[in-house]
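Treating backbone geometry as a discrete language has practical consequences that deserve illustration. No coordinates are needed to read the tokens, only the vocabulary itself. For completeness, the protein is quoted in full, as a sequence line and a line of structure tokens:
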Amino acid sequence: QSFSYPGTIVRTLTNGTIEHGTQIFSAALRKTPTTYYAEDSGVGLALRNCCQGRARNIGVVGLGVGTIAAYGQPGDHMRFYEINPAVAPIAKSLFTYIRDSAASISIVEGDARSSLAQESSQDFDVLVIDAFSGDAIPLHLLTTEAVDLYKRHLAPGGILAFHISNQHVDLEPEIALLAKAAGMKAMTVSSFANDDRGEFTAHWMLLTDNASFFALPEVASKARRPDENPSVRLWTDDYSSLLPILHW
């Protein structure tokens, strides 16, 4: 989908009613992360505060149009995991976040959990889990066994960043339980729409066992304790239920 936007072109990838990324092709905004990935979003907060000026190793489950590649700096490594083989050619040809990125980028096709299970530890400083915006939630990415796998791929003190913006379900209390079971602290970060910059209201959860990350002034000012729901049970590979977290 392409359409005019004050004086320039905006290109958006949609699947049904779900937007998977937008790029504004103006000189000022072409390399700026938009939609759910703005600099004041939870993932922006994690990427800007994880590594104190050194090169970063970043994993991303869910490619979309490659918006997160806009955060890439020289020396960074970014590894995207994408289940839909139609997505990477679109992200590489119709959008320029990947080719404009200063990071070195690799894309792994196939189910992310299967791919991660077959890989040796990637030592990610931040692992972004961004597969939950649609109305079909991949539950196998949200179980205790999945989180244990993610932890195996984190560097010491690394951060899991779950994108939980969703019209249909409230994943916050479930991910709070998963964090507690994994011995990690979870905080929620919400950011708000800015039409001039193509930014959406976005909700993220950040999980880490690195207490000093949440003590950083910018993080502490924007993060809050997650909501709990007593009717939610911990999800495992043997049990999960969307019923307690549906928006009725």
Summary: The chain has a mean pLDDT of 93. The chain has eight helices and eleven strands.
